[in-house]
């Protein structure tokens, strides 16, 4: 009998595993980096062991430190979660060598399916349909370029050891191939330590549909329906749902049986996901097998009524599968979105900083899987996902409706998130019709307002003016009934300056009792303030009583109205500052990260849009580009440097600036 489980992970998946393990009577052990010392998963576990500094290579990827923590605490089994070491065959073997039960498949299955090249060959031999391509053993750039001539375009370059869209490139023309091979290989080495690549014929506008499989140690294997993960950005999943609106019962059975065949072919045990591409004619092709629990497993749990972590632990103990194939039934519909600290209007750059307030919405059919809470900080060291927001409904529209409300009612103050972007997807007509393919975000959704910088409305400025004018802005301020303090004093007009991003907006605020008139230029907005406090602002706007959430910290205000959040600062009483520098030519880091390449040197001529520096953050490469033509005057970063968001990296001077400088020198 297994008694104590160590979770070799962090964040929401560690929290989720701990919950099920505790419910089954297991004692739990958390591991954590120095940056995670006060994290939620550490607090929830019975015991916790620090395994190193913040860098994942020195902590969560340090297998010997994790195994030593298990031995020291007397744990007898290890759950790897997802990511980090979850698909590392060496870690699986090391656990078993140390006398620990690894809650996952045998190392041979992990190793086979961890190679896109070898797994594809194995699937062909097992009779599972695969995408035509080239799977040469450690193929050179030249071999890949030569093979591409037979495959034809468009084609996909894929990292053999990869996942999550890293090391993956779509190539549409022959003259784009060589550069994309180099980029994909570099990214694959950075992310996985392995630069092996394969090529595949690109299936245009497919569905990305995956099958959840489970196998035990007695030769039994089943599938638990499918998940549609077609809505993706840069090959990373954004929305996942079950069942797929595109899959017919006959296709579900065919794909399910193929997935079980794939699992049995590699001697699989435990939870696994077989991913397929499905074309418009419902032909399906093996993509890869993930030898772990998936991020999106909650949607399968909600439509099957099963706890997949409990199944994993049961299989690890050597028990047969809880259900046979004919006992597995699907009920209703579930949709999951990934709530990230990122800015969709600024190229989805990851956001870091304090999470002043995080309050998940409550309601029927809702589930939040999260590893953060109010007061935590989002750091640059790890994936910036705040939570998985999942809604279940008796049908797809009910699930969509509940998810939309959950996104709108969840309070997140302190960092920019992708919440508005997610809600726009769920409400979109193409998605609503079940017609979204992997090309959806790049085509039908590419001009959506959530992808452009938001212009603050006069209504939002009026709401902010109500809070700032009343002076009841402390985070713990009690709820205050405005009507009780109404006065018949004459109206007052107060100038107010609010800072939004880099803009400072001048307002005139007239207040008569609880009635506010806010003027900006020629525009006016009027509303009645009913009450505010406890983070809730109540107003009457054009005869309609409404509420919105807010949070104040000093002169900073976070306001959430109609599911959209804005951040403002009251600078009315700030001293006037000199003219702000234009910033043109001052190229700054777009996020916290590491410099992995500097492509320019002092004196080099550059054009607007040229890539100057490659920044790595959240395991992805981000090019930092010139914002104007000119000459590189100074390079302030070097390969290997750790930099902060907005840190100056490169300065570009123009011919005019150089001319002015030379004139000054000549006159001295």
TrEMBL record:
Residues 120-317 form the ATP-grasp domain. CDD domains: biotinyl_domain. Residues 584-653 form the Lipoyl-binding domain. The keyword ATP-binding applies. It comes from the Bacteria. Its cofactor is biotin. Keywords: ATP-binding, Biotin, Ligase, Nucleotide-binding. PANTHER family: CARBOXYLASE:PYRUVATE/ACETYL-COA/PROPIONYL-COA CARBOXYLASE, METHYLCROTONOYL-COA CARBOXYLASE SUBUNIT ALPHA, MITOCHONDRIAL-RELATED. This is Acetyl/propionyl/methylcrotonyl-CoA carboxylase subunit alpha. It comes from Marinobacter azerbaijanicus.
């Amino acid at each position: 009998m297994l008694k104590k489980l160590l979770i070799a992970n962090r964040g929401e998946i560690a929290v989720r595993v701990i919950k099920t393990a505790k419910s089954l009577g297991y004692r739990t052990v958390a591991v954590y980096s120095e940056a995670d010392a006060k994290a939620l998963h550490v607090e929830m576990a019975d015991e916790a062991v620090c395994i190193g500094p913040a860098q994942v290579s020195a902590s969560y990827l340090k297998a010997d430190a994790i195994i030593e923590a298990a031995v020291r605490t007397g744990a007898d089994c290890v759950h790897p979660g997802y990511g980090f070491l979850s698909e590392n065959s060496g870690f699986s073997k090391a656990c078993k060598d140390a006398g620990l039960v690894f809650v996952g498949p045998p190392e041979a299955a992990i190793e086979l399916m961890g190679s896109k090249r070898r797994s594809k060959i194995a699937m062909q031999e097992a009779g599972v349909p695969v995408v035509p391509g080239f799977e040469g053993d450690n193929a050179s750039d030249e071999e890949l370029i030569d093979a591409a001539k037979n495959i034809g375009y468009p084609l996909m370059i894929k990292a053999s050891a990869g996942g999550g869209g890293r090391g993956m490139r779509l190539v549409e023309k022959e003259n784009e191939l060589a550069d994309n091979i180099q980029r994909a290989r570099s990214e694959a080495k950075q992310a996985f330590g392995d630069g092996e690549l394969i090529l595949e014929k690109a299936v245009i506008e497919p569905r990305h549909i995956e099958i959840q499989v489970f196998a035990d140690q007695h030769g039994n294997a089943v599938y638990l329906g499918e998940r549609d993960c077609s809505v993706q950005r840069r090959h990373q999943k954004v929305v996942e749902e079950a069942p797929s609106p595109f899959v017919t019962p006959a296709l579900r059975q065919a794909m399910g049986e193929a997935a079980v065949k794939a699992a049995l072919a590699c001697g699989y045990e435990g939870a696994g996901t077989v991913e397929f591409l499905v074309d418009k004619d419902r032909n399906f092709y093996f993509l890869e097998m993930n030898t772990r629990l998936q991020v999106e497993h909650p949607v399968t749990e909600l439509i099957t009524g099963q706890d997949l972590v409990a199944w994993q632990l049961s299989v690890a103990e050597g028990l047969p599968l809880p259900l046979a194939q004919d006992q597995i039934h699907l009920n209703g519909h579930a949709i999951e979105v990934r709530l990230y600290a990122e800015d969709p209007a600024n190229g989805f750059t990851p956001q870091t900083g304090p999470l002043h307030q995080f309050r998940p919405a409550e309601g029927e059919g809702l589930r939040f899987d999260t590893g953060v809470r109010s007061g935590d900080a989002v750091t640059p060291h790890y994936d910036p996902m705040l939570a998985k927001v999942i809604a279940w409904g008796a049908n797809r529209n009910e699930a969509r409706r509940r998810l939309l409300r959950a996104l709108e009612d969840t309070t997140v103050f302190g960092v920019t998130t992708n919440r508005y972007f997610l809600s726009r997807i769920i409400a979109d007509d193409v998605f609503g019709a079940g017609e979204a393919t992997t090309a959806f975000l790049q085509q039908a959704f590419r001009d959506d307002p959530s992808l452009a910088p938001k212009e603050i409305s006069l209504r939002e400025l009026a709401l902010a003016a109500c809070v700032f004018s009343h002076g009841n802005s402390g985070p713990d301020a009690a709820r205050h009934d405005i009507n009780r303090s109404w006065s018949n004093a004459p109206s007052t007009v107060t100038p107010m300056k609010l800072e939004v991003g880099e803009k400072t907006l001048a307002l005139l605020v007239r207040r008569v009792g609880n009635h506010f008139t806010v003027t900006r230029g020629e525009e006016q907005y009027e509303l009645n303030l009913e009450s505010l406090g406890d983070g809730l602002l109540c107003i009457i706007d054009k005869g309609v009583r409404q509420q919105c959430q807010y949070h104040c910290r000093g002169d900073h205000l976070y306001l959430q109205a109609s599911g959209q959040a804005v951040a403002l600062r009251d600078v009315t009483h700030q001293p006037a500052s000199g003219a702000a520098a234009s910033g043109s030519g001052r190229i700054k880091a777009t996020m916290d990260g590491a410099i992995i390449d500097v492509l320019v040197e002092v004196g080099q001529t550059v054009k607007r849009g040229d890539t100057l520096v490659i920044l790595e953050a959240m395991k992805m490469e981000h090019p930092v580009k010139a914002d104007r033509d000119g000459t590189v005057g100074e390079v302030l970063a070097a390969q290997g440097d750790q930099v902060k968001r907005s840190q100056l990296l490169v300065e570009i001077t123009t011919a005019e600036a150089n001319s002015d400088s030379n004139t000054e020198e000549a006159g001295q």
